[in-house]
Each structure stands twice: as C-alpha cells, then as structure tokens.
C-alpha cells in the first residue's frame, strides 16, 4: 500500500496497540503465533473487534464481533468512514498534510449511511457506529486482515477501503498504528520482494522503469524482456486461448488449489509441455510431462525467507535431502546450463549478495548480520541500518520525505459476483483450520488428533429447513459442479451461510464448487463467495 | 518498568537496577547463578518450587528470587548454609515422589547440593503409567513435579487455551484436563507449548518416547539447527533436533521475539512429511529428468 507491498507494523506493536480491528482473518487458526501477540495486547488492556461472517475462534476473543454478510466489506468500511466524518472524529491536520482526495471521498461515502450499511452487512447500525467511534478515538489502532478481504472479485478495492480508514484517522505510519495484511504462506512476502510478480523486479522496482531495467541488464549481462508478464489468472486465460502452451510450475498445486478446478485441470492437460518442480507427487505433478524433484526448502537447504513483518530470516539445512532431489536454485541453474546459458555454480549466499547489489531495500542485510540476530526488517539500505519496524513514517514528516501525499480511494459496494438465487440459495465461503494447510500435501503427513474441516458447516436453522441431521451425507452443488459432503450443524452460524475448508481435496474436491470470478487488479479468485445448493442424497448416488 | 532505579547488595556486591527488576534477574546480570525449576523467562513466575529461595537481611523467611523484586538498600545472600539446606530439602522431597531421571538440570542440582535421594523413604512415588492417547505427545505424570509451567503456557502466558489445570489437593494433586477426559477429547489444540516448558520430560514428543522405549534416544548424537517454519507467513523460528538424519523433535528459543518459545501444532508436529517416504516418492523416471 502507498507504494510498497508489505505490512506496515511489527508484531511487537500489536501488543501495545490500543485498538485492534481484525477483519476477514481467523488468525487464531491460520496465524496462531501472531495471534499470541494479539492476545498479549488484549491482556495488556487493548481492545479487539472482529469483522467476519463467522464467529471464528479469533472472533471469540473479540470485545465485539460484527458478523457481516459475505462480500459486504466495502459497505461496512465506507459507512465507518462516513460516520467518522459525520461525528467529526477524523484527523483533519493529518488529512490536510498527508493525503489527497479527501473532498471527493467525503462526497463518495455520503450514501453509505449507517442504515444502508446495516441492511447490506446484516450488522445493526448501532454496532457499526460503535466500531467507527472506537477505531477513530483510539490512541493507536491497527487493522489486520487476510484472505477474507482479498479473496473476492474486488479484493484490491476491499484493501483500499481499509486504507481509507487509516488515512482518515492517521492510524498509520507511527508506532502501534498500521495496516497489517497477514501473509498466508511462508515466504509469500519474500517471493514478492524477489520480483516474483508480473510487473516487478526484485525490491519492488518496476519492470517498465528503463533505469531499473538497465541496472539489472548490466548485472545479468543479458537484455531483459521489458514487458510486464502475466499473473496466474491471466496465465490460465492465455492457456484457454492457446496463447500459452508451456508451463513450468515450482512448488504450487493448482490442480487442487484453483477455484473452478475442473476447468484448471483441463487447461493443464491441454498444454504442450507441463514441467512441475516439487517435493511431492501432487495432483499437478501427476499431470506433468516432466517432474523435477526438489529438496525441502526450510529443512534441507540454506537460504532466506521473509515474514509478514518484512523480516528476512535464515533457513538452514538440518537434513541430507533424499537422493535424486536437488535445491531449487540448483535445478534452475542446471536447466539454464542445458539451455546453453553459461550459468555459474553458485550458493544461496552468493545469490543473496547479488540481490543486495540490485535491491536497495535489502542492501544492508549481509548474511553475517542475518546470522547474528533474529533477522532484519526491510527496508535496510546500508550495513549500519537497524532495519525498519514500521513503514510510512514519512506521512508524518514535514515534507512527507519527498513522497506524494497518500490518496483516498473511491470504492463501491457491489457484493459477490455470484448472487444467491432460488436455485443456489446458500452462500458458501471457505477458510483454514488450525492443524491443516492449503491442499494438505504437507499436513496430511502427520497424524493430528484434532483434524477437522472436511465437513460442510451449516446453520441449525438451515439444517432444520432442509431436514438435515448431524453427520448426514448430502450433495452440494454450485453452478460449476457437485460434490458429496458430510453436514456439520453449528448453532452459532448465520442462516444462509455454509463453510468448509479446502485442505482435503482427496476427500472432497471442493474447488469444483468455488467461483473463479477474479479481481482484475490482483488476479485473485473469489474463493470466499460461491452460491450453492444442498440436496439430500436420493436413491443411488446423485453426486 | 519504571525509570526509577534501586541499589542493593547481592552476595556483597553492589548493583543498581531499574525498579521492578526481580532478584533473579539482577543476579543473572551479575553472573550469579540461582537454581530455578518453576521459573521460565517466557512465563509469569508462579512461585511454587522454592528452589530459587535466597536470604535477605532482616527477613524472617527465605524469599523466592524469581518473583521478589529488588528493594533499595536490601542485602541479599544467594548461597548461605540456610539457603543451601532449604534447596537440598526441596530436591530431596521432589526426588522422593517423582521420577527425575530425565531432567538433566535436576540431576545436576541433586549432585551439586549433595541431596540424599533416599532420605524420605519410599513414601508415595507415583507409578502412573504414561498416558499415550495420540501420535503426537505423551504425558508421563510420574515425572511431574507440579511446577505449573504447562498450565501457565496453556493459559494466559501464551496459548489461552486453558485445556489443563491442577486438580486435587496434596498427594492427589495432578495436572488434569477437564473431567480428566483423554487429551484428544479435551480443549487441547496440540500446540505442544506445554512440552516446550516442561522441566522434567513428563511431557514429551511421541517420537522421543518411542525412541527411548526402543533404546534409540541418543542426545549426544543429536544436533540442533535453527530454521524458519514452512507454514504460514508469521516466520516462527524452529530448532530442529535431528538424529540419524531424522527430525526427532522441534522447539523454539524462549528468548525469540516472534515466538517467545511457543509454536502451533503445525510448526511443532507438522514436519513429518519431510521424512515420510510415502509422500515423497519421486518416481525413477522423474529422478532421471532432474539430472
């Protein structure tokens, strides 16, 4: 946000924050050790409100839970903004000094009255008003979110709506206040930092910035393609048009993880060449022409990863990898040599030093420094720099540190693309549970005594209406497909809402149901909102 | 901690510390060793073991160094005969009722203090069989000294799950789940943070338990490697304890700012795929392609 892709605040700060707004995140289950810091904050006297369609394990720790309708986040955020302005609780001096577009924003949020938001979100107006006042009047306040915000067809607009609230109140760019997207995958932050984005070079340098590009061309000694590439979703579109016919996948399992997964599998099968580099024979690897067995990054290889607080940390080899597997960077290097590129034999530290020479925000992070302490938080521009605890302090500097003021964004409540209808009357949303992870290829490896998440959780009210009993097998259908599932009845789940996880594709091919409508700005699919129908099993298998 | 400071003598040396510093912390900063059992740097002191007692001038009783804060002008002695006698007795009492054989720390203290393990003749050594209720960890309460560390870690010092507490009184006191139900049926979420703080190995990894049963647990051959957990993006530091090229248990450093020594079920137990060949079987064809 405001130019750099990383959470603004350190974990330590949430322990001291006056007010925490957990929005679309079940951190208790998905980021358990981060949630320890949140709980410390609550114990230190801070308050937490939670916004989530479900009363999750995290929401149970909240002072107030706002159980909104799936996909009504912008209605809520804009109404909070309108109320903050109407009650004169916005930070006028900060807005004048550090932001632009406030007048247009005021006008834009005017229709988002408390009553409108109440009807759009299903949360009563008084509670929304209370949240607005609590957030705005807190001495320090953070908004934390995860995929409940981003896995929508308008995920980027959702994020921008939360940024608006921070700009309105000055709750960003100082200790204890900030905007914190919790990263779901180990090193998803580091991947982005390293330029694994279609339009970025390492260190968030733009690929269409000729100066930056020239720097990399000089270092690498080859001309580079100056055109931004495709993000995942556009790649699938290009595959559908047969514009993209070869794919090299490293450590990803789209044949299980993509929304509308039947379509994805067809596209993967139709490729001329599919290469998969992984530590497992995943369902994606089974579709591949060539599988390159890799060793395990965090236990069998040396290197670095970067966490949600932008902390670069060392991973180290503790085990000899199985024979026949190789470190990812070694495989890529050997492949380059087969292509006839004279790629020198290298080491993780050597590659890191090359990165440091090209990415200013990593320049000060030598391996020696990373070894000594607990790692360093970027930006860390020189070898004496201590690293950066929170971002965007410039918003409070007299000259904005030479930056342009931060813009308010005008966002519109639309709701999920896929509406519930009389044919598909229930809203399906998905999420994680504590002991499992993504498509389960790793967590299937240990025997968890608390394994859950394979069932379809529904409200007792819907169960009654559909005459379903606990543990009953049913057919669950969306406009894209059907699966057979077991029903689990929850007394505290909203009527009309169904929930399950995506961790057990071998048991329930859940992503046959999910919607691949995607956000044009981020390429993320609308995993969080599909319309479904539940049918009792009749006679022989309807599934 | 306030900005005010206090000055006191510990073992005849003058030291000035910020107000609120415990005697233990002050002594540690002076490299004066005070033994502890129920204290841990990542937990709130519960004051139950009495092993860290010291003598303060003018005080009628011995005082626990782990939780008593330094007072201006105090004179504290950490190693007098009276202190040593008390610590010795604590060790003898503990050893009379529990199996301390798997606690290196306590074994060392027993020998340092010349504690007579048979002084209190076979009163009530508990012989409860180990509770093996799942594949992740084992609770062998014959080694439990009721230090409360597991209760604290499960409760409001870290995990806020509150799956266990001390139930009963006197010799019947024990760590228990609600209504003593088996762990998988309790509120336990298997973070294993109780194992992480247990000082006597009463709580241990199932891997360690099985290897000990098979006489294959060889700490002297183990190495510890620090790395970062591969699951979510929080970046928890893991200490991988390995033996014979296998991970045998996972811990996290108590002084680490991200974890404070605590992990979740995935980080602590979710590593088995790394060495489970069933999940890592690149076929010989694909192996060829890597070369």
CATH fold label of the largest domain in chain A: Dimethylsulfoxide Reductase, domain 2
Number of strands of chain A: 21
- Alpha carbon gap, first and last residue of chain A: 44 Å
Question: How many discrete structural domains of chain B?
Answer: 2
| Unreliable residue runs of chain A | none
| Corresponding CATH superfamily of the largest domain in chain B | ADC-like domains
**On the 0-100 scale, what is the average pLDDT of chain A?**
93
Which class best fits the helix and strand makeup of chain B?
A: alpha+beta
Unreliable stretches covering 5 or more consecutive residues of chain B: 278-291
Distance between the termini of chain B: 60 Å
Topology record:
The complex is a heterodimer of chains A (543) and B (291).
Chain A lengths: L10 H6 L2 E5 L3 H4 L1 H12 L3 E5 L12 E3 L6 H14 L5 H7 E2 L1 H8 L4 H8 L3 H13 L3 E5 L1 H4 L4 H15 L8 E4 L6 H6 L6 E2 L3 E2 L3 H11 L11 H9 L5 E5 L3 H4 L3 H9 L3 E6 L4 H4 L3 E4 L3 H4 L2 E4 L4 E5 L12 H11 L9 H11 L8 H6 L3 E2 L28 E2 L18 E6 L24 E4 H6 L7 E6 L2 E10 L6 E5 L28 E7 L7
Parallel strand pairs in A: 1-2, 1-5, 2-3, 4-15, 5-6, 9-10, 10-11, 16-20, 17-19
Antiparallel strand pairs in A: 7-8, 12-13, 13-14, 16-21, 17-20, 18-19, 18-21
Helix pairs in contact in A: 4-7, 4-8, 4-10, 7-8
Chain B lengths: L4 E6 L2 E6 L4 H7 L23 E4 L6 E2 L10 E3 L3 H17 L6 H9 L18 E2 L4 E3 L9 H6 L9 E4 L6 E4 L15 H5 L5 E3 H8 L9 E6 L8 E7 L2 E6 L13 H5 L14 H7 L1
Parallel strand pairs in B: 1-5
Antiparallel strand pairs in B: 1-2, 3-4, 3-5, 6-7, 7-10, 8-9, 11-12, 12-13
Descriptive keywords:
heterodimer; A: 543 residues; alpha/beta; Dimethylsulfoxide Reductase, domain 2; Rossmann fold; 4 domains; six-stranded mixed beta barrel; five-stranded parallel beta sheet; 32% helix; B: 291 residues; alpha+beta; Ubiquitin-like (UB roll); N-terminal domain of TfIIb; 2 domains; five-stranded mixed beta sheet; three-stranded antiparallel beta sheet; 8 helices; 19% strand; globular; disordered C terminus
């Amino acid at each position: 946000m405001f130019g750099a892709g990383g959470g603004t605040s350190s974990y330590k700060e949430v322990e001291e924050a006056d007010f925490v707004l957990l929005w679309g995140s079940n951190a208790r289950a998905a980021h358990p050790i981060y949630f320890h810091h949140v709980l410390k904050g609550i114990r230190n006297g801070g308050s937490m409100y939670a916004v989530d369609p479900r009363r999750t394990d995290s929401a149970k720790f909240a002072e107030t839970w706002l159980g909104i309708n799936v996909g009504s986040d912008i209605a809520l955020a804009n109404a909070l903004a309108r109320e903050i302005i109407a009650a004169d609780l916005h930070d006028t001096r900060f807005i004048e000094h550090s932001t632009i577009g406030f007048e247009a924003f005021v006008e834009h949020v005017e229709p988002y009255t408390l009553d409108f938001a109440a009807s759009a979100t299903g949360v009563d107006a008084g509670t929304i008003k209370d949240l607005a006042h609590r957030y705005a009047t807190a001495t320090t306040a953070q908004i934390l979110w995860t995929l409940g915000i981003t896995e929508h067809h308008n995920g980027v607009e959702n994020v921008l709506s939360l940024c608006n609230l921070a700009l309105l109140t000055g709750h960003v760019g100082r200790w204890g206040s900030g905007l914190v997207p919790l990263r779901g995958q180990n090193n998803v932050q580091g991947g982005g930092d390293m330029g694994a984005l279609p339009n970025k070079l390492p260190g968030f340098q733009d690929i269409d910035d000729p100066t930056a590009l020239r720097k990399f061309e000089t270092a690498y000694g080859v001309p580079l393609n100056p055109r931004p590439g495709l993000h995942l979703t556009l790649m699938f579109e290009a595959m559908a048009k047969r514009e993209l016919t070869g794919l090299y996948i490293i450590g990803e399992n789209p044949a299980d993880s993509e929304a509308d997964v039947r379509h994805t599998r067809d596209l993967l099968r139709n490729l001329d060449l599919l290469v998969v580099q992984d530590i497992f024979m995943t369902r994606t690897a089974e579709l591949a022409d060539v599988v390159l067995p890799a060793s395990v990054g965090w236990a069998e290889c040396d290197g670095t990863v970067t966490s949600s607080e932008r902390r670069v940390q060392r991973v180290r080899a503790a085990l000899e990898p199985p024979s026949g597997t190789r470190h990812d960077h070694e495989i890529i290097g050997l492949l380059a040599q087969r292509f006839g590129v004279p790629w020198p034999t290298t080491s993780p530290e050597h590659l890191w030093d090359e990165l440091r020479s090209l990415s200013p925000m990593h320049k000060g992070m030598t391996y020696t420094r990373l070894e000594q302490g607990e790692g360093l938080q970027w930006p860390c521009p020189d070898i004496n720099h201590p690293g950066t605890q929170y971002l965007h302090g410039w918003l409070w500097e007299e000259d904005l540190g030479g930056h342009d003021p931060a813009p308010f964004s005008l966002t519109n409540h639309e709701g999920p693309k896929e509406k519930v209808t009389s044919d598909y009357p229930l809203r399906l949303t998905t999420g994680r549970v504590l002991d499992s992870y993504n498509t389960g290829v790793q967590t299937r490896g240990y025997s968890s005594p608390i394994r859950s998440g394979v069932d379809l959780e529904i409200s007792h009210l819907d169960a009654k209406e559909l005459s379903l009993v606990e543990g009953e097998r049913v057919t669950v259908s969306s406009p894209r497909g059907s699966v057979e599932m077991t029903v689990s009845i929850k007394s505290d789940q909203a009527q009309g809402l169904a929930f399950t996880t995506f961790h057990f594709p071998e048991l329930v091919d859940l992503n046959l149901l999910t919607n691949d409508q995607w956000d044009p700005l981020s390429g993320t699919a609308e995993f969080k909102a599909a319309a479904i129908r539940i049918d009792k099993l009749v006679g022989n298998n309807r599934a | 901690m306030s900005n005010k400071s206090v000055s006191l003598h510990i073992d005849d040396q003058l030291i000035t510390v910020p107000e609120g510093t415990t005697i233990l912390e002050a002594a540690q900063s002076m490299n004066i060793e005070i033994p502890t059992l129920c204290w841990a740097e990542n937990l709130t002191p519960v004051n139950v073991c009495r092993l860290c007692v010291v003598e303060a001038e003018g005080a009628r009783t011995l005082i626990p160094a782990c939780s008593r804060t330094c007072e201006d002008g105090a004179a504290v002695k950490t190693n007098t005969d009276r202190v040593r006698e008390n610590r010795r007795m604590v060790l003898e009492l503990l050893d009379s009722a529990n199996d301390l054989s798997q606690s290196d720390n306590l074994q060392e203290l027993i020998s340092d203090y010349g504690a007579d393990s048979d002084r209190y003749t076979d009163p009530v050594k508990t012989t409860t069989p180990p509770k093996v209720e799942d594949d992740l960890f084992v609770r062998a309460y014959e080694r439990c000294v009721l230090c409360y560390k597991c209760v604290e870690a499960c409760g409001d010092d870290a995990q806020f799950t509150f799956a266990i507490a001390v139930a009963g009184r006197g010799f019947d006191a024990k760590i228990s789940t609600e209504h003593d139900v088996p762990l998988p049926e309790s509120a336990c979420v298997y973070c294993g943070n109780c194992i992480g703080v247990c000082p006597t190995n009463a709580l241990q990894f199932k891997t360690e338990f099985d290897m000990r049963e098979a006489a294959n647990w060889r700490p002297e051959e183990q190495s510890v490697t620090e790395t970062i957990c591969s699951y979510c993006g929080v970046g928890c530091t893991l200490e991988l304890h390995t033996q014979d090229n296998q991970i045998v248990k996972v811990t996290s450093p108590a002084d680490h700012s991200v974890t404070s020594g605590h992990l979740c079920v995935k980080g602590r137990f979710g590593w088995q795929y790394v060495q489970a060949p069933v999940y890592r079987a690149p076929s010989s064809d694909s192996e060829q392609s890597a070369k």
